[in-house]
Amino acid sequence: MPDTALLRRLKFRAWHRGTREADFIVGGFFDRYSASWGEAEIAWFEALLEEQDVDVLAWALGSAEVPSHLAGPLMSALRKLDYVEIPH
């Protein structure tokens, strides 16, 4: 079971990226999927959080090639964007 303090810190970082678009993508992704993550998925997400918003957005939107260290099923889930809920 992941450390709840770590998950709270990751959630905060996910929702406070610096751009609203990245907040919705990274934060929404965290909210949708993090409950089922183990250590490997958390490590992947921590690596994603170290990347620049412009890069994360480009990978999510499919306008840039995903680096090999982030490629895989979690990036595929991130690229679906079906978890993004924009408030009106």
So what's the CATH class? Answer: Mainly Alpha
From the 3D structure, determine the CATH topology: DNA polymerase, domain 1
CATH superfamily: Flavinator of succinate dehydrogenase
Q: Which range best describes the helical content: under 10%, 10-25%, 25-40%, 40-55%, 55-70% or over 70%? A: 55-70%
The appropriate CATH architecture is Orthogonal Bundle
Uncertain runs are none
Name a few traits of the molecule.
single chain, 88 residues, mainly alpha, DNA polymerase, domain 1, 5 helices, globular
Folded structure, characterized:
With 88 residues, this protein is an all-alpha fold. It has one domain (4-80): DNA polymerase, domain 1, CATH 1.10.150.250. Helices cover 61% and strands 0% of the residues. The protein has five helices and no strands. α2 crosses α4 (53-61). The longest helix has 14 residues, at 20-33. It is globular and about 35 Å long.
Provide a brief overview of the structure:
The protein is mainly α and about 90 residues long.
List strands and helices in order, with pairings.
Blueprint: H1 4-15, H2 20-33, H3 39-49, H4 53-61, H5 73-80
Helix pairs in contact: 1-2, 2-4
